[in-house]
Design brief:
mainly alpha; globular
Length: 319
């Protein structure tokens, strides 16, 4: 996934400021925000998530901070972001290659974490692939198409988190499958919250087939408030995303120690986001509904205190 332009050197990605990374950290519900984690674990998670943020910022054109007036990307901007993503990917390889190491400071900070936690390059490259797709793919026809995008944009994060905690989740294992379900559910809930912002960027993540089935026109996404049809669609998609969280819930019961706390917190953030969507009556066009801390703590405590068999039964929809 390096620069494929014949005879051209990769364009270096913009170096983020430390202030930008910390501002993003404070605004996101990643496990790194769980202050109860040991300092060494927090440092490893921060190293991973800083790279994730840089990849996403390049893909969204937010390297200098969030756009105040998001708009669709131009062909020239898409080409520039594509070149910068390829440049980052080329530098990313140096985290694992023998040699002087990567040029970007955020990638240099990843080197000791990658070695200590046994991180591989593939999950990061999948995130780059998702952001490359965002430059040219702005619609997903079916639910399965959207989930396929989440395989690149969301599932790798859970796999990296498990590696940081020393959890062995081989490809195709129950642990990996459950982690993927949680991450896909979280990503889709975020898409539900961010319908207006994504639309302003020229992207629609709600599946085209679902828009049609619920009688929602794309122009309806430009209104100041969500129509009854759009609210019904978002309620349906939110329910399906929560079902994915339920399918991944057995992972929490299988984990121990800080890994269990962190993953439960991750899932709790998603359930709290669903609560916020419901409280807003799914009027996401009036403003992105935000999870509150009380709901996060409530879901976290519930999942941490449930016996493993109850978490298993959530997967079957019986709890």
């Amino acid at each position: 996934m390096g620069d494929r332009r014949t005879g051209a050197a990769p364009v270096p990605a913009a170096e983020p400021t430390e202030a930008r990374l910390r501002d993003a950290e404070r605004s996101e519900n990643f496990p790194v925000a769980l202050r109860v984690l040991p300092a060494a674990t927090r440092a490893h998670l921060r190293a991973v998530y800083d790279v994730v943020r840089v990849i996403d910022d390049i893909g969204d054109g937010d390297s200098d901070g969030p756009q105040q007036d998001p708009r669709p990307v131009t062909a020239e901007e898409a080409a520039d972001r594509t070149a910068r993503l390829h440049g980052l990917c080329a530098d990313l390889r140096r985290v694992w290659d023998d040699g002087p190491g990567p040029e970007m400071s955020v990638l240099r900070r990843l080197v000791p974490t990658a070695r200590a936690c046994g991180l591989t390059r593939e999950p990061f490259e999948r995130l780059v692939a998702a952001n490359l797709a965002d430059q040219y793919v702005t619609r997903y026809r079916t639910w399965d198409d959207l989930r396929g995008y989440c395989v690149l944009s969301a599932d790798p994060i859970g796999r990296m988190v498990l590696s940081v905690f020393g959890v062995n989740a081989p490809p195709g294992s129950d642990l990996q499958r459950w982690s993927d379900r949680i991450c896909t559910g979280l990503q889709i809930l975020e898409h539900c919250q961010d319908v207006a912002e994504d639309r302003a960027r020229g992207r629609v993540y709600l599946p085209v087939d679902d828009l049609t089935a619920f009688g929602v026109a794309e122009a309806d996404l430009d209104a100041p408030h969500a129509s009854p049809a759009l609210r019904a669609l978002l309620a349906d998609v939110t329910g399906r995303a929560c079902a994915l969280l339920d399918e991944g819930a057995p992972l929490i019961g299988r984990l121990r120690g800080w890994a269990r706390v962190a993953v439960a917190g991750y899932a709790a953030g998603g359930r709290a986001a669903a609560d916020a969507l419901r409280r807003s009556d799914f009027d996401v066009l009036a403003g992105a509904p935000q999870a509150n801390r009380r709901d996060v703590v409530r879901h976290l405590v519930r999942d941490l205190t449930r016996p493993s068999r109850e978490l298993e039964s959530r997967k079957q929809g019986t709890v």
